[in-house]
Automatic annotation (TrEMBL), chains A, B:
Domain Metalloprotease TldD/E N-terminal: 17-78
Domain Metalloprotease TldD/E central: 106-193
Name of the featured protein: Peptidase U62 modulator of DNA gyrase
GO cellular component term of the entry, any: cytosol
InterPro entries assigned to the protein according to its UniProt record, in alphabetical order: Metalloprtase-TldD/E_C, Metalloprtase-TldD/E_cen_dom, Metalloprtase-TldD/E_N, PmbA, TldD/PmbA_N, TldD/PmbA_sf
Domain Metalloprotease TldD/E C-terminal: 221-439
Pfam family, one: PmbA_TldD_3rd
Gene Ontology BP terms: proteolysis
UniProt GO MF annotations: metallopeptidase activity
């Protein structure tokens, strides 16, 4: 508490957040290991408040002298600023209720070698099993994060996590052209990355990618796979559950708590401790105790996510969703691990029961969705045509609509879930929608 | 040469590039100092070649043990790869011809304080001089880079540079709405950032931003300011002079060396040692001697820029334009400081002589230009209407065309030049174009 005491000379309230990260990463380009790397970063963020004036300082170091100089600089920054009359206070001391989840120290010591071998084996597998296939891109690696959050109200929480990832992006040669690229991945909190699953899943889809099916249908039964679902929700639903947007009145859910918004088959919660979560945090970036927050229960909207600042303003209090922006040092409201509850039917069965429809693996253009309304207009790519319960070829089409209408009418949800980290952090099933309106793409 | 000797056990050829960077930065948001930061980074990139197989390893460290382990890892990466039959060799020992340019050590020791005060003074100036103005964003800071490039052919070159920057982004309140944002900046290799120039230049333009002039003209005399010019060239002309594109035949300039391509008023060269350049390098990222490369002389295309790899393949040799990508560790072809030679007339006179026309300060959408053809379609914003030699209000319009047609017919070039770092690195004048076709924007 030495540094906190030092800081109290300058501030009414003070927070010191220290992060140390080690990252090992190996990249693949055109069937080759293009590079491997080991990255280290120590980062300390100081946030101090004096007379409701806020000062923030960031330094790439955890050296005591640097932090002391940083505290002084943060105080000078604060002095130069105007009062933020909305400021209430930093979080109070907390009780932490996280379940005991053991860190995997193998990840901390992982060498690039391990991932080089894994990727090389995967490249060989892909090219042996499909002579026309090439691994256009890919990567694998591990990251280890240690964080300690201290504040002048007595918060002092230390935590550490490791996770690993691997993805491959594969295309098939067809004369002078190539198939749409097919991607699959694995993300874990241990070293058991499932190379065989990734390769098999990609090659299974690649088979159909060689046959391009023109889509001139305007309606069909559609399965949206976990990654595509995450891409869509990240730009539509996730902003809408952010408490800051409730205060500023820029979410369509503003006065909808307790109302049925989505299909009753849908239950969504933010659960850092889900069995396949890769960040089972004890506390958020402000030291507030992490928890499981229900967001939709059987379609009924249960409430917003809050950090300390906006939670204090609204009177709802923090839900443990304070997330630090490492460029600005500031705290925003973030999802830790958005879980959509799984259904009962196997994905294979969902596909098997479709007579004439589509499977969507990814969306393009989701970033231009409108979070204020939930409206979106995206290109389904890669996507596949399903006939008589079987994939028969790849296709591309447009899907326009509104996320609340879409999720207001879900036909079924798969039993399987996937851990997603590309667009936000989540655990997502496949979802089946019946008689969805689609539009052909002119290509 | 210890580490090079160590690496020669594993490789036929070897390059070790070490970078140390210190960055001080202060950010402004809504009239406030939102944060200040001090960043440190040490980075070593190892590139080794064995039997024409290339291995690259990156580590956030300059520790000898880490680098030795990195050399071993790079060797393993290389072994796993296929031969690159196009590989010739790493650069040979060089003679360096750079002029003596002294580094400014004040920048190395600069504290955030200096920039906090500068920004606070600027914010005060802006708000005092225009009560409706608010500083929506801005930043100032300094960066110090030390780099050392070593290779097994005897290259061992050490260099260091410092530079400072400051920019402000200001909008004016008009009832419930705001004016288009006006930005200006300064970039230097000393500490004398010209706050007064930035503030005055912004407020001068802001005066006209309060008056929105609808533009229904379809043609006019247009001045494109330095930053807007850089934005356009970065996505059209600069890719076209890249030697890799010549080898791959993806530039419209492929077989045009010696031909007149641009207006004879235009002379363009890449000059790292220009008096207002902020990176007066002695050698590029491969240790190849830096030089001044003529690109267009009085409109005639003089030749492409090359790094070692593509220069060897083409037989033209490196022009000292090898630039390291810090994410991949690889080398690409980059411009160090693209200079467009200035003209004779003062900018004020250029404006003064326009009866009915436009001044363009920035472009939106330049990134979707087509570098293979030079075609572009951009929105001029911020832009200003000129009547009888005076700015009379702000406006927005579209400009579509081809960069070679545009630069094939230049009416005049300003005497003043600005140092640009936002889009590539350059020194740009203002350019006047007569009877340019424009299109209204529906907003």
């Amino acid at each position: 508490m030495n540094l906190i005491n030092y800081g109290e000379r300058f501030f009414d309230e003070l927070e010191i957040a220290k992060y140390r990260r080690k990252e090992v990463s190996v990249d693949v380009e055109l069937n080759q290991i293009s590079m491997s790397s080991v990255g280290y970063r120590a980062l300390t963020v100081i946030r101090g408040i004096k007379d409701k004036k806020i000062g923030i300082f960031i330094v790439d170091s955890d050296d005591e002298g640097e932090i002391k100089r940083g505290i002084e600089q943060a105080a000078k920054n604060a002095m130069a600023n105007e009062r933020d009359e909305k400021w209430v206070e930093l979080p109070k001391e907390q009780k932490y209720n996280a379940p005991e989840i053991e860190s995997n120290y193998e990840i901390k010591d992982a060498s690039p070698d391990f991932f080089v071998n894994l990727l090389n084996d995967a490249i060989k597998d892909v090219r042996t099993r499909d002579k026309r296939a090439m691994v256009a891109g890919g990567a694998a690696g591990g990251s280890w994060l240690e964080m300690r959050i201290l504040n002048s109200h007595g918060i002092d929480i230390m935590q550490e996590f490791g996770s690993t990832f691997m993805y491959l992006y594969v295309a098939g040669r067809m004369g002078n052209s190539v198939t749409p690229g097919i991607m699959d991945f694995d993300v874990r909190r241990d070293m058991n990355l499932d190379k065989n699953f990734i390769v098999s899943s990609i090659l299974e889809k690649l088979k159909y990618a060689y046959t391009m099916k023109k889509s001139n249908k305007t309606e069909g039964n559609v399965i949206i796979e976990p990654l595509a679902l995450a891409e869509l929700l990240y730009f539509t639903l996730i902003p809408a559950i952010n408490g800051e947007r409730k205060v500023k009145n820029t979410t369509p859910l503003s006065d909808k708590v307790g109302q049925k918004i989505l299909d009753e088959k849908i239950t969504i919660y933010d659960d850092p401790w889900h069995p396949i979560s890769t960040n089972p945090i004890i506390a958020d970036d402000e030291g507030v105790a992490a928890r499981v927050n229900k967001i939709f229960e059987k379609g009924i909207f249960k409430g917003f996510l809050w950090d300390n600042y906006w939670g204090n303003i609204s009177g709802e209090g923090s839900t443990g969703n304070g997330t630090r922006n490492f460029s600005t040092g500031g705290i925003g409201i973030g999802v830790h691990n958005l879980v959509i509850e799984s259904g009962n039917k196997e994905k294979e069965k969902l596909i098997g029961e479709i007579k004439d429809g589509f499977l969507i693996s990814g969306f393009q253009g989701a970033h231009s969705s409108n979070p204020d309304t939930g409206d979106f207009s995206v290109v389904a790519n890669p996507a596949f045509k399903i006939e008589d319960g079987k994939l028969v070829g790849s296709t591309v089409f447009m899907l326009s609509g509104n996320v609340y209408s879409l999720l207001g009418n879900v036909a079924d949800i798969s039993r399987e879930q996937r851990k997603i980290v590309v667009m936000g952090n989540g655990v997502m099933p496949d979802m089946l929608f019946e008689n969805l309106k689609i539009a052909p793409v002119s290509r």
